[in-house]
Structures are given as structure tokens and as C-alpha cells.
Amino acid sequence: MMPSQPLSDTVCDVLVVGGGPVGMFTALRLAQLGQKCVLMERSRHTTRHPKMAYTSHRTMELYHRAGIIDCIRSQGVPEHYGFDEVFKTGLSEGNYTIVTLASHSPEQLRKDWAASNDGTKALEPHMRQSQIVFEACLKEMILKEPLIQCHWEHSFESLTEDDDGVTSQISTPSSTITLKSRYVIGCDGAGSKVRQSTGIVSHRKPMRVQPLNFQFVHFKSQDLAKLQAQGRFWHLVVLTGAALIAQDEVDTWTLNCIPPPGSESASEDPVQFVKKHLGGLKKPLDFEIDKVLLSGQWKSGLAVAETFISPKQRVFLAGDSAHELTPSGGNGLNTGMQDAFDITWKLAAVLNGWGGQDLLTSYDKERRAVALLTAKAAEKATNEVVLPWLTSAREIGYEKLIESSTEGQAARDSIKEIITLGRWIHEQDGTVMGYRYNKSPIIIADISAVEPPSSITEYFPNTWPGARAPHVFLRRQDKHL
Ligand SMILES: Cc1cc2nc3c(=O)[nH]c(=O)nc-3n(C[C@H](O)[C@H](O)[C@H](O)COP(=O)(O)OP(=O)(O)OC[C@H]3O[C@@H](n4cnc5c(N)ncnc54)[C@H](O)[C@@H]3O)c2cc1C
Predict the structure, then answer these.
(1) Which of 154, 282, 325, 474 is deepest in the core (most CB within 10 A)?
(2) Which residues does ligand 1 sit against, CB inside 6 Å?
(3) What's the CA gap between 209 and 217, in Å, rounded?
(4) Predicted pLDDT at 475
């Protein structure tokens, strides 16, 4: 890390606003490309809300290219654990398992993919890792980078841009300062002040329930006999609208819940809240909670900014400041990491004198199209999968779902069918690897060929201009290259 100098004297090439995952990765990539930057974060700590649990295989490929994959992977959930999702009417006695959607572990996928080696799969399998762990890991990396000047507890307030650069107003714990930079990258999340200062509008898409309000409790428990009575899982979903995430396969869990309007809040009595909602349709689950780490609420939204680049092309938006994607399908941070990867090499190229203006414009054209595509998948996931089974369970009647009668079984079967149809939510190879940078000013279209097919779930390997190049495993003398 660069020695901290008084910010009021600083004139820098790039100011990165927001030290969340996208901001830290952006700063790291700039440094790796030999570019100095100032990173500014309003908090003193990295996140304590676990948020992200799923890192896609495409994002893992980018970590591979950035040379950080071993460090990140070593702090994720070990590769032999799978991504199973169990759906139940509750965990307490007398409840039913509706269905288990089993999926292979990364360890197994690695073997399967290497054996088929037909270009349809990624270099790296996906990973389970909480955002708390990921951000801490990234922070450690950026603190070692001499080209990054970090300022915690510094809040960006506003900016003005002209043809030569950007002037930002910053609040520090003791004063207000002005910082001049040639460029600003706004990685300051969904409520982005950078976006607001540039006058860029973010459009919310209409959803049936907009936004969805969640209560959550993040806690420690070693009572695996109760929590994993039906076996290990990644997600355990209770049909009344609660989902328990196994964060580390040891003792860390997060319950996310959509309680009916007017219900108690998770923060009032988090322990009773967890027991009640895990208990499901019978009595509360009687189990040991060792510690509540955090409780509160969050809202899921869906919005894409009208542009990712300011009028004078000095300010760029990346991550949630550019697109807020509901967590259904786990695409939010993954999309943000790709933004960071894209804008950093382009900006470094311009600052180093070999990149032209079209390179910067291409960031908006390429990444906004991907955000819109991903938002469409997230909207479909919410409206065609999550809401239908939640609503159906309510309409069928919770009491019916725990009846031991033939009618009860029929009710469970009908919910099982809806849930099973929605398993594509976590099988989005097409969204994750099949996006293409069409209409980019730096890519020459192939007008002589027919564009390859697209799908949310399936990735069709192709070399269409602007597509991700298919991956194949190569071997030399019995070693994977
Ligand atoms: C419950 C949940 C589960 C999720 N699961 C997944 C998943 O499995 N996979 C996935 O890909 N995504 C997931 N997401 C989405 C993911 O968490 C977000 O996409 C991600 O946090 C966005 O990162 P970001 O850096 O763009 O923004 P943020 O994480 O919001 O970070 C923004 C940073 O900017 C700072 N900041 C804000 N304003 C200012 C200011 N004025 N000055 C200085 N600093 C400022 C903030 O303090 C923060 O550190 C999930 C989200 C939730 C809520």
C-alpha cells in the first residue's frame, strides 16, 4: 500500500469510490496493470453481512487470469462439498422433505469436465464462499499493493466533471476535502452517490413483488445433529419462505426469510426468530445457537443504469452501482467482477497511451448489454420460480402440506414439481459463459455467419466475435496446462 498522503494534495489518475468487492477488485486489477489509484471507502471494516454465497465458474476463470485463484479458493468451502438444495416443510419433527435438488461438488465437476473436454465447460468450477470471507481476502491483497492508496472512513459526497477530469468532494472523519482525478470508477453499491452526481438514472424493472423484503440472522451453531438431520446441504429451504445457507460446512449459517407483512423482525429476538422459522409448519426447532453474529433486513431489487459511463466519459459505474440484480441465481457480484475486469484494462490502456476513446465507450456497450441480459434471467428466476412455489404453498394451505393423507401427498407432489422445474436457477451456464459483446465499437461483426444460439442454461461453445473463447484442457506429458 502506498504511504497515505494528505488527500487534499492529491491529484491522481484514477479514484475508485467504494471498497466493497467490486471496488477492491478494481483497484487490485489496476495495480496489477501497473496503474496507481486511490481507493476510498466510507466504512472502517469490510462487510459483516454475508450476502454472496455463490461464485460462478466464469468469475473463477477471471480470478485465475488475475493470479489470485489459489488464495481465494483456499478460503472458500472445500471443493468436495456440493451445492445440494433441500426443500422441506420445516426441520422440526413431523415435517416433510419435499425434494432434494442434488448437484455435483466442484471436485467431481473438475473430473467430469476434464474427461468430456468438449469446450462446453469452464476452466474452473464454481465455488461456495461468503462475501464476508471474500472481502477480507481481497482487503489483505490490496493492502500489499504499493500502487493502491487506501482511505477508509472516507465518504464520497459529490463530483463535477469537465473535459480534463473530475473534482470530487470527500468527507473524512475530520474535514471535507476536494480531490482531483482524471477518472472516477463508481463502485459504491446500489445507492451510488457517484451515479447520482453524474445524473445517470437507474431504471427499476417492474416485478410482481417489488422489492422483496427479507429478514436475516447470521449465526454460529455446532448443533449439526439437528441442522443436518436430513444430510448436508448448501441451501435448506422451508416452504413458508425461509432459506438457511450453510456458509462454511463447519458452524456458520445464515437464515434469510420473507415473513408475512407485519410479522416480528429478525432483530427483536434473533434466536427465537431462527428457531421459529426453521421449525416450519410444526413447532419451533429446538437446537443450540452458539452466537448470533448479525441480524437485520435487506431488500432485493432489480435495476440497470441507463448508461455506465458519464456524459464526458470521465466517470464509470461498476458493480451494483451500475446494476442491482436480485440474488435469485447469484449473479450480482459475479456480473460486477466482470465489469471490474473489463473497465480496468481499458482504462489502463488509455492512461498508458495505447487505448483510444472507443475503448472506453465499449465498456458501456459491452457490459450494459450483459447486465440487461442477466437482469432478465434474475427477473425470470424470481417471477417464474421463487414466487410461484412460495405462492402455491400459501394457496394450497400449509396445513394441507403436512397432512399424512393422500391429499397431503398430492399437495407435496405438486409443489415438488414446481420446485424441480426451477432448478435451472443455479444452472445458468448460458448466462454465465454465453454472453456476447455484440454492438461493441471495438469488435468487428461477422456478417457472413449466423449467430450461434443463446440460452440461459446451456452454453454453446463458439468463436463468434465478442464471445468468450471456449475452454479446452490441454495436457503436456500427463500434466494439465
Ligand atoms: C442476501 C444476498 C445474497 C447474495 N448472493 C449473491 C451470490 O450468491 N452471488 C453473487 O454474485 N451476488 C450475490 N449477491 C449480490 C452481491 O452481494 C452484490 O452484487 C455485491 O455486494 C456488489 O458489490 P459492489 O462492490 O458493487 O457493491 P457493495 O457490496 O454494495 O459495496 C459498495 C461499497 O461502497 C461503499 N460506499 C457506498 N457509498 C459510499 C460513499 N459515498 N463513499 C465511499 N464508500 C461508499 C460501501 O460501504 C461498500 O463497501 C447477494 C446479495 C445479497 C443481499
Answers:
(1) 325
(2) 17-23, 40-43, 51-54, 131, 155-156, 187-189, 193, 256, 298, 319-320, 327, 330-334, 336
(3) 22
(4) 80
pTM beyond 0.70: the answer is yes
Residue-wise burial string across 283-314, b where 16 or more C-beta atoms lie within 10 A, e elsewhere: ebbebebeebbbbeeeebbbbbbebbbbeebb
From 17, 58, 131, the mutation candidate for ligand 1 (largest count of ligand atoms within 8 A of CB) is 131
Ligand 1, atom 39, lies closest to the CA of: 188
Residue 307 CA to residue 316 CA, distance in Å, equals: 9
| Of residues 18, 21, 14, the one with CA closest to residue 338 | 21
- Degrees to nearest 5, angle at CA 306 with 305 and 311: 110
CB 364 within 8 A of CB 323: no
Q: Which of 83, 73, 51, 76 is nearest to 129 (CA)?
A: 76
C-alpha cell at 116: 468430456
Burial of 18 (0-12, 13-18, 19+ CB in 10 A): buried
**Nearest atom of ligand 1 to the alpha carbon of 334:** 11
What was the pLDDT predicted at 262?
Answer: 78
Task: Say what the pLDDT of residue 207 is.
Answer: 57
Instruction: Give the residue carrying C-alpha cell 402440506.
Output: 401
User: Percent of the chain, pLDDT > 90?
Assistant: 83
CA of 16 to the centre of ligand 1 (A): 15
Which DSSP string do the residues of 29-46 spell out, in sequence order?
HHHHTT--EEEEESSSS-
Instruction: Give the model confidence (pLDDT) of 95-150 as tens digits.
Output: 999 999 999 999 999 999 999 999 999 999 999 999 999 999 999 999 999 999 99
Work out the angle at residue 203's Cα, subtended by the Cα atoms of residues 324 and 347, and round it to the nearest 5 degrees: 65
Phi then psi dihedrals of residue 388, to 5 deg = -60, -45
- Give the per-residue pLDDT at 150: 96
For ligand 1, the distance from its centroid to the CA atom of residue 318, given in whole angstroms, is 11
Residue with cell 445457537: 289
The C-alpha torsion from 196 through 199 and 200 to 201, rounded to 10°, is 80
C-alpha angle with apex 52: 232 to 467, nearest 5 degrees? 110
Q: What is the pLDDT of residue 264?
A: 83
Q: Name 277's Cβ contacts closer than 8 Å, sequence gap at least 6.
A: 238, 240, 242, 255, 257, 259
Q: Which three cell numbers stand for residue 373?
A: 441480459
- Which residue matches cell numbers 479446452? 472
Q: DSSP string covering 385-427, please?
A: IIHHHHHHHHHH-HHHHT--SHHHHHHHHHHHHHHHHGGGGG-
- 8 Å CB contact between 446 and 462: no
